[in-house]
Design brief:
Low-confidence stretches of chain A: none
Shape of chain B: globular
Strand content of chain B: over 45%
Low-confidence stretches of chain B: none
Mean pLDDT of chain B: 93
Number of strands of chain B: 11
Number of helices of chain A: 0
Largest interface: A-B, 26 and 28 residues
Distance between the termini of chain A: 36 Å
Strand content of chain A: over 45%
Distance between the termini of chain B: 37 Å
Largest sheet of chain A: 7 strands, mixed
Structural class of chain A: mainly beta
Number of strands of chain A: 11
Radius of gyration of chain B: 13 Å
Order of helices and strands of chain B: EEEEEEEEEEE
Structural class of chain B: mainly beta
Mean pLDDT of chain A: 93
Oligomer: heterodimer
C-alpha cells in the first residue's frame, strides 16, 4: 500500500531533550515536506526537500533540522525542543511539486513540557 | 499575513443539504488550488483540485468553483452526508516545479443527520 509513515504518533517530552520524528514513504516520491498544524493557523511548512541531499526552509523552520540522505526518508529533528514546539506534525510527499497532490502521513502529536 | 484565508472556522449543515466552504487568497501568482479533507487522528487527504485556466471542476458530489478576479474559490458538497463531517483545508500553489503549497487555516464541517 502506498503510504507515508511517521513515528512516533504521540510523544511527550521535556524541554531540551533532543528528539527525532521519522518519516518514510514507499512511493519513490522526489518531494517531501514537514508541516505543523496549530489551531487557527492551519498547516504551516517547516522544511521541504526536492530530492536526496536537497533541502530548504519553509515558513517556520526555527528550532528544527532535517536531512534527506535517502529518497524514502525525511526525518525531522528537534535539537532542543521548547514548549512552543508543542504541535501536531505532518510529513507529506509527492512525485514532484507543481500539479501533484501531496500524500500525508497520519500525524505525530508532540507535547513539550 | 495569511496568503490563503478561510474565514469560517466552522460550519453546520443538515444532511441532504448543500455545504459551501469558502476560501480567499491574496497572491495573484497562485495558479493551482486544492482542497484537502481531514478526519480526526488522520492526515489530510486530497479531495479535489482546480487549475486557474478553469472556473469549475466537478467530481461526484464535490464541485470547486474559482473566481480569479475576486481571488476566491468555493467547495460545494451536494448532497451533504454525515461522513463528510471533517476539517477542510484550502490550499494554493504556483504551478512550477518545486514551489510550495500554502494552506488555509481550515473549516470544520459538521453534517447533522
Amino acid at each position: 500500500e502506498a503510504q507515508v509513515t511517521q513515528n512516533p504518533r504521540y510523544l511527550i517530552t521535556v524541554t531540551g531533550k533532543k528528539l527525532t520524528v521519522t518519516c518514510s514513504q514507499n512511493m519513490n516520491h522526489e518531494y517531501m515536506s514537514w508541516y505543523r498544524q496549530d489551531p487557527g493557523l492551519g498547516l504551516r511548512q517547516i522544511y521541504y526537500s526536492m530530492n536526496v541531499e536537497v533541502t530548504d526552509k519553509g515558513d517556520v523552520p526555527e528550532g528544527y533540522k532535517v536531512s534527506r540522505k535517502e529518497k524514502r526518508n525525511f526525518p525531522l529533528i528537534l535539537e532542543s525542543p521548547s514548549p512552543n514546539q508543542t504541535s501536531l506534525y505532518f510529513c507529506a510527499s509527492s512525485l514532484r511539486l507543481g500539479a501533484n497532490v501531496l500524500t500525508f502521513g497520519a500525524g505525530s502529536r508532540l507535547t513539550v513540557l | 499575513d495569511q496568503q490563503v484565508k478561510q474565514n469560517s472556522p466552522s460550519l453546520s449543515v443538515q444532511e441532504g443539504r448543500i455545504s459551501i466552504l469558502n476560501c480567499d487568497y491574496t497572491n495573484s501568482m497562485f495558479d493551482y488550488f486544492l482542497w484537502y479533507k481531514k478526519y480526526p487522528a488522520e492526515g489530510p487527504t486530497f479531495l479535489i483540485s482546480i487549475s486557474s485556466i478553469k472556473d469549475k471542476n466537478e467530481d461526484g458530489r464535490f464541485t470547486v468553483f474559482l473566481n480569479k478576479s475576486a481571488k476566491h474559490l468555493s467547495l460545494h458538497i451536494v448532497p451533504s452526508q454525515p461522513g463528510d463531517s471533517a476539517v477542510y483545508f484550502c490550499a494554493a500553489s504556483v504551478k512550477t516545479s518545486y514551489d510550495k503549497v500554502i494552506f488555509g487555516p481550515g473549516t470544520s464541517l459538521s453534517v447533522i443527520p
